[in-house]
Amino acid sequence: MLRQVFTVTSALSLLLCAASVVLWVRSYWTGDGFTWNYLVQRDAPEADLGHADHYRVFGFSTGKGGFHVRREEQYPILGANWPPLNVDSKPRADLRPLGGTFGFDYEAETFATYIYFPAWSAVLLTALLPGLWLALLRRRRRRMGFAANSCQVCGYDLRTSPDRCPECGTPISRAST
Questions:
Q1: CA dist 155 to 16, 117, 147, 149, 177, Å?
Q2: How many domains, in total, are found in the chain?
Q3: DSSP string across 9-21
Q4: Within this chain, do residues 40 and 113 fall inside the same structural domain, yes or no?
Q5: 74 lies in some domain
Q6: How would you label 97-115 residue by residue, b for 16+ Cβ within 10 Å and e otherwise?
Q7: Whole-prediction pTM
Q8: What whole-number distance in Å separates Cα of residue 22 and Cα of residue 13?
Q9: Are 158 and 149 in contact (CB under 8 A)?
Q10: Which residues are paired to 31 by β-bridges?
Q11: Could you tell me where the beta strands, DSSP code E, fall in 92-146?
Q12: 108 and 159 together in one domain
């Protein structure tokens, strides 16, 4: 059961790795942004910014070889409704160059917190689990090996075959049996 969970988790991590590579390459031509807006009512227990309705914004953006994640509190114009999910794409000139830097930023006006990281770090992090899965698979196959009376090419049992492997057609040498 644990091996199956590890395999599924590795497959999901591989998909995230592929998505990170696509976004990394795409970030040199265009910037992508995904924003989730959550309305916090003024009476809600999580309304810690005073007595007005505001939006809690969570976002992810790409820009020139890097990614950034943000969380901020924004007060919209009175009566304005924001979409709960916003996906946008910007031309290259509008984007801040993120390149290969790690960083953290805070803006007091909008209570915004930004975390910057290079795209290669996301690719490396998401590739670790599939890499470990492949290494363990290779180790397990090496440890199992082929039995003494089996074909060295395909592993077929050769005890009843005198001169040729019936599975793949490989001639049997003395070293194979």
A1: 35, 47, 8, 9, 12
A2: 2
A3: HHHHHHHHHHHHH
A4: yes
A5: yes
A6: ebeeeeeeeeeeeebbebe
A7: 0.64
A8: 14
A9: yes
A10: 90
A11: 103-107, 112-118
A12: no
